[in-house]
Amino acid sequence: MAESAASRFVDQFSCPVCLDGLKEPVTVPCGHSYWMSSMGQKEQEPPYRCPQCRESFSQRPLLKKNTLIAEMMETLQQTALQTAAVDCDVCTTEKSRAVKSCLQCLASFCQTHLQLHYQSPAFMKHKLVEASRNIQENICLSHGKLLEIYCQDDSQCICCLCTDNHKGHSVVSVDSEWTRKKEELKEIKETCQKLIQERERGQRELSEALKLLQSSALETMENVEKVFTELICSLEKKRSEIKEQIRAQEKTEIARAEELHRHLDQELTELRKRQAEIEKLLITEDQVNFLKSCQSVCVLPTFENVPITQHTHLYFKDVSISIFKEVLDDICQQQTAKISQEVSKVCVAKTQNDFLQYFCELHLDPNTTNNALKLSEDNRKVSFTYKKQHYPDHPERFDRYVNVMCREGLCGRGYWEVECSGKQWAVAVCYKGIGRKGDSDDCRLGDNKKSWRFSFYLQNFYFTHDKKKVSVPAVCSSRVGVYLDHGAGTLSFYSISDKMTLLHRVQTTFTEPLYPAFFAGYGSSVRIIEEQSLKI
């Protein structure tokens, strides 16, 4: 039955074009899947059509491998192979299909030759299992005895003679451990199902929030349009600026929601895959194979606790746009400033507690550390040292500039703080592709398009990007906070003392994950603050 079911599923996943199995499946926008080579056999002229449902596309769809279907096909093929018919070991002429395997006889028997095990007292005590090709796996390789004992300390099936090597260990029968593990897997399956339901609920809430966001943005733009159309031509420019701000905020929120949606999709895929593995394992009767495979699926994958929240309104109710009807030039400037301020308030953290929900656990990457820098044992502090460190050669190491990067690449939103000391230091972010070898601008933090640097030098603060240096006229404490909103394209630096003071903010477009990076000059050091030390 299992064999036919697995084969039937494999047939269902055949390519509709070439009728072969989906060895490298790709999915087109309409949802149908094909073999990659089948879709690339001939070039079509626009409009491009799905071979199955004939839905047309104005542009040729970008074909990417559907990893989920590929993994399912591999699992189904393995299942079909494992459940293939087992021949009777006693039949001499035409082999009949075996229905049971005997762990004592180490042989498989058809229904006819199995009767001896039911009728003869000498064979009645033998242990029968479902017919299996892997019956030898139930035998100890060292002693040739049946693996009927399970050592819980070593998570290993052993025979009665192996117990001498497991003295003092907690051992039980394979049967009891199989029963216990099966119950444990059932509980894990229930937990997995709850996690799936939570994330599905989160997706539904996110979709509703996104609809409200778009509706609110549309309504706000319509109200702004209605007011500004009543003004004279001199206000047309101001009207366009406000509409652009609203569109930009809407785009930011939509991008943030889509990123969270993709994150939830990824978690759901992992959970459903793990659930399928558990369900497959729960139906197997091969106890030893069950226990061997159980270890890899008992522990559910850990997920980052992503808050499933989405702001759904651009709060313009308190902005008195109608005042523009009464006063022209002077009031126009004042109210435009107020409107801009209201837009910028959406989803902007203000206090340290607001930022802590985005806290990132960072660790310095030893493979990037310049030889003039010394790392602490926990890879959280970097200090300039006059004694050259003999680090091994590595393609990611900065060989000229005294820089070091973190291991973690950041997308979405993130916040971290560092404690800086000395007269020359810099806190930066950069793309992974920043140069490492030589003293060109491509390797210097802030002097290229791949990095953004906030630095302290000669008692002054500066912000540098693409060799453009801006003086930051501020009194900064030794602790600096950094807030990144990758989707919104903002990077902010704060001075942390008894309060948070904004030092500098960047508004741009980030195209790759960003890696925190640091520079420590003569006598200087930079230490990454742990989360428990962030409370003011």
UniProtKB/TrEMBL annotation:
Domain B box-type: 135-174
SMART domains the UniProt entry points to: BBOX, PRY, SPRY
One Pfam family from the record: PRY
GO molecular function, one term: zinc ion binding
Gene3D superfamilies: 2.60.120.920, 4.10.830.40, Classic Zinc Finger, Zinc/RING finger domain, C3HC4 (zinc finger)
Start and end residues of each B30.2/SPRY domain: 342-535
InterPro entries the UniProt entry points to: B30.2/SPRY, B30.2/SPRY_sf, Butyrophylin_SPRY, ConA-like_dom_sf, E3_ubiq-ligase_TRIM/RNF, PRY, SPRY_dom, TRIM8/14/16/25/29/45/65_CC
GO BP: innate immune response
Domain RING-type as annotated: residue spans: 15-54
Coiled-coil regions, chain positions: 178-212, 247-281
Keywords: Coiled coil, Immunity, Innate immunity, Metal-binding, Zinc, Zinc-finger
One cellular component (GO) term of this entry: cytoplasm
PANTHER family: B-BOX DOMAIN CONTAINING (PTHR25465), E3 UBIQUITIN_ISG15 LIGASE TRIM25-RELATED (PTHR25465:SF5)
Name of the protein in question: E3 ubiquitin/ISG15 ligase TRIM25-like
Species this protein is from: Sinocyclocheilus rhinocerous
